Amino acid sequence: MRIVSNKIGAGGATPPATIKVWDPFVRIFHWSLVALFVVAYATGDEIERVHVAAGYAIAGLLGARIIWGLVGPQHARFANFVRPPREILAYLRDIAMLRAPRFIGHNPAGGAMIVALLVALVGTCATGYMMTTDAYCGSKLIEHVHEFLANLTVGLVVAHVIGVLIASFEHRENLVASMISGRKRAAE
Ligand code: HEM
Ligand code: HEM
Question: pTM above 0.85?
Answer without folding.
Answer: yes
